[in-house]
Amino acid sequence: MRRETEGIVSEESLDPEDWESMRELGQKMLGDMLTYLKTVRDRPVWQGVPDEIKAHFSKRLPQNPQSPEAIYREFVEKVLPYPLGNIHPRFWGWAVGTGTIMGALAELLAASMNSIAGGGNQSASYVETQVVDWIKEMLGFPASASGLLTSGCSAANLIGLAVARNVKAGYDLRRKGLQKASARMTLYASQEIHSSIQQAVELLGLGSDALHLVSMNDRFQIDLEALKAAISRDRKDGSLPFCVVGAAGTINTGGIDNLNALADICQRENLWFHVDGAFGAWAALAPNAKDKVTGMERADSLALDLHKWMYMPYEIGCVLVQSEEGHRKTFALTPAYLAHGEGGRGIDGADLPWPIDYDFLLSRRFRGLKAWMSLKEHGSRKYGRLIQQNINQASYLGELIAARSELKLSAPVTLNVVCFRYVTSSVDDAVLDELNKRIVTELQEQGTAVLSGTTIRGRYVMRVACVNHRSRREDFDILIQELVRVGKELTTSGSKGSST
Question: Which of 306, 327, 347, 353 could share a disulfide with 321, CB 3.0–4.6 Å?
């Protein structure tokens, strides 16, 4: 309570008034969450948020305190039962990671320390530097490269392309701006590239017309001859080609571009080579799949996530840049109130580079602790085995699909993504599109499995992306069994409905 009596002010803080009861509540929270994760298979993958729960979140701002115990009860009743579902073994939608126990505990520790990890003489600086160094080692980048932990691959792609733009502009773009460019800057990627590349291009002021999406071959790779022709054509038209974006695992199909060939083209044409390796970059750790991403280490910049195929809690990504100088010159801006040096004494005298000199963000949370603790807990070899396990599971699912007359693969299974359709000869492709959408929705609403959908060559397909360390082969057996059951039920009910 705040009281003012006879000129004496009683000051407040946000610390608990009763530390022991808060300790008991914290221990209960921890125990409940461990049980929640241990029993994840006992619950539906997903269940929709009921209308009464939605209405609960339209209540007005609280003006007065509530007890921590009551707030936690509200969480357990109104929040905890209705997640996206990505911690479940049969969640395979989009490309969403599962998280781990140690990662969750590390988040508690990092939040309790509340470090601002933008630099300085503090433990967070050394932990995050070591994590970035480990990532370089795992993915074959030189120790001299710069690196930065990010919120995810969208931010990492933006940073990598910002460096590419500034380095290849041929003039001081930071000072003079794009309006002083002597020619329109253009860059290239396949038609399968992630939408965050276009968003980055737009945010960088280049305009989406500057991003030339090149046709693909039948393996969903960028067509190399078409790429070379596009670069040549743009040069003749007076444009300035400056970058090629390769994919180490496209979001739609898991397709991997010929990265060595792209590196050769970029070297010959004096272009920046950026790789979007959101989840697929980690195939480099898999014993039988690392050759699929050969050439990735030649990229000038590489963007990737750790909250997808390294199974860490959201959010954590990374960007690596071969040219530390180019990276730093793209972002470093040090006003007097942020002056810092390397070496020396005091908080601002750390002997490490400051992350704020390589990023557009000044406020940076201590993301690296969960990666540091997770890599120590399991080691890179176990991560490699788990990634290989997901690849093998995707191949197994592909075999299950090939063995069923009701199902048909829509793309080769090259990594950990499986695209397929439920098919029946009695209806046309447009009707099949709607049927496949309904199957995906039914499986979600029944709590059986979460798939997502996408479009390949103009047709809707069901899509499984396995970045789930909890999945077992039996889960894919259940998926196929239930998917075919739902497909037959919908087909039967649809044919009955059309005849009445």
Answer: 327
| 57: exposed, middle or buried (Cβ count in 10 Å: 0-12, 13-18, 19+) | exposed
Six token digits for residue 60:
């007005």
* Whole-number Å distance between alpha carbons of 300 and 267: 10
Question: Phi and psi (nearest 5°) for 442?
Answer: -60, -45
Cα-based torsion angle of the residue sequence 136, 142, 147, 152 in order, rounded to the nearest 10 degrees = -40
E strand segments, 216-314: 240-247, 272-276, 301-305
What dihedral do alpha carbons 115, 120, 125, 126 form, nearest 10°?
A: -130
Checking if the pLDDT of 496 tops 70, the result is: no
pLDDT digits (tens, 9 = 90+) for 224-236: 999 999 999 999 9
Domain containing residue 410: CATH number: 3.90.1150.170
Final residue before a domain boundary, out of 366, 398, 413:
366
Q: Which residue has the tokens 């209960």?
A: 28
Q: What is the tally of helices (H) and strands (E) in the chain?
A: 14, 13
In angstroms, rounded to a whole number, what is the distance separating the alpha carbons of residues 321 and 301?
Answer: 4
CA–CA separation, 412 vs 463, rounded Å? 12
Placement of tokens 């461990």 in the chain: 34
Half-sphere exposure for 382 (CA within 13 Å, toward CB): 8
Q: Are 368 and 127 in contact (CB under 8 A)?
A: yes
Q: Closest by alpha carbon to 397, among 405, 409, 406, 381?
A: 409
pLDDT digits (tens, 9 = 90+) for 212-269: 999 999 999 999 999 999 999 999 999 999 999 999 999 999 999 999 999 999 999 9
Residue 385 host element (H or E): helix 368-402
Of the candidates 413, 433, 436, which has an alpha carbon nearest to the alpha carbon of residue 484? Answer: 436
What's the gap between Cα 334 and its chain centre? Answer: 30
Domain boundary among 315, 339, 366: 366
Task: Round to whole Å and give the CA distance between 111 and 26.
Answer: 14
Strand, coil or helix: 407 = strand
How does pLDDT run across 460-475, given as a tens digit for each residue?
A: 999 999 999 999 999 9
Angle at 323 between CA 317 and CA 327, to 5 degrees: 60
Q: How far apart are CA 424 and CA 432, in angstroms?
A: 8
**For the chain, what percentages of helix, strand and coil (3-state, to nearest 5) are there?**
45, 15, 40
Report if pTM > 0.85. Answer: yes
Q: What is the DSSP letter of 247?
A: E
By residue range, what is the domain housing residue 178? 115-366
Angle between helices 153-168 and 195-203 in degrees, nearest 10:
50
Task: Tell me the β-bridge partners of 150.
Answer: 317
Identify whether residues 216 and 325 lie together within a single domain. yes
